[in-house]
Amino acid sequence: MSRNAPEWVLASLDAAPWVVVRRTAPIAGLVSVGVRGATRSERFAATAPVEGILERLRPQDLVSRQPARAHPAFEAMAALRPALDAALSHLAQASLSSPLPGGERACPGRDPGSRGGAEAGEGDRGFPERARPPHPALRADLSPLGRGEGRRPTSNAIALAQEATGLAWGPGGSAGFELATGRPTLTPDSDLDVVIRTSALPPVAAWGPLSAALEKSPLRVDVLVETPSGGVALAELLGGGGEVHLRTASGPRLVPLAALLAEPARC
To answer: Which position among 85, 189, 191, 222 bears the catalytic label?
Structure first.
């Protein structure tokens, strides 16, 4: 840890030795991480060695984890879980049924008829992932990356379609951090953050069922859709504009929505 770290940083790591990997350009041999303090203003940037990573938890790894306390965000997540699972299956099938000319909408080697194919390295795409370095005061937890089980499919075809498109969801933000670390992080005013990962962005119209389910939630739910090029807010994706703000490892960029939808799957 940097000698310039504020006193609250070590105190925070003593209470919950977990860090969040930041969305930055790759650094050889290092992972860019951030330490969360007790308040929103307490955030500290640092780095951790890649070879020291012992454990990583992604949002989809936290879906079934039981919270240690009651909170509206956890209640909203439990209530929305069936709708989110069903929506991801719908998105997977919609994505596979609308192939791009000259492009792929599924991961190579992971098409709907096969479970084969090697898993791509997650760190080489520049997205935030969380891992646990060996330092006693450093750990990491969530990531918008990686595969998860997604919905509990009612048919093998649905399961294969979801696997082929790399779709998975899980809690992010304070809710995800609390589930991963056990440290009370949510405040009475906290909303629910959800991360949806996909290897290729499904058609905009396919997000309708999920949008309708979110509108019925008594708690505000912010959804970030992680694509291989970066993250985009679902609200902006469905806003009807021709351009969207894409969160990338090199910073936010304004990109044409049509270009993002036309990108082939990257796994």
So the answer is: 191
Catalytic residue among 61, 111, 141, 193: 193
- What is the per-residue pLDDT for 105? 55
Confirm whether 189 is a catalytic residue: no
Q: Helix, strand, or coil here: 42?
A: coil
- Is 222 part of the annotated catalytic residue set? no
The values of phi and psi at residue 35, to 5°, are -100, 130
Residues whose CB is less than 8 angstroms from the CB of residue 39 and which lie 6 or more positions away in sequence, other chains included: none
Q: Per residue in 90-138, pLDDT tens?
A: 888 887 776 554 455 556 544 433 333 322 233 333 333 444 433 333 3
Cα 219–chain centre separation: 20
Number of residues that make up the chain: 267
Mind listing the pLDDT tens digit for each residue in 163-202?
A: 777 889 999 999 999 999 999 999 999 999 999 999 889 9
Model pTM?
0.77
The separation between the first and the last C-alpha atoms of the chain, rounded to the nearest angstrom, is: 33
Q: For the chain, which residues make up each domain, given as ranges?
A: 53-262
DSSP 216-264: T-SS-EEEEEEETTEEEEHHHHTS--SEEEEEETTEEEEEEHHHHHHPP
Q: Are the C-beta atoms of residues 96 and 110 closer than 8 Å to each other? A: no
3-state SS string over 105-126?
CCCCCCCCCCCCCCCCCCHHHC
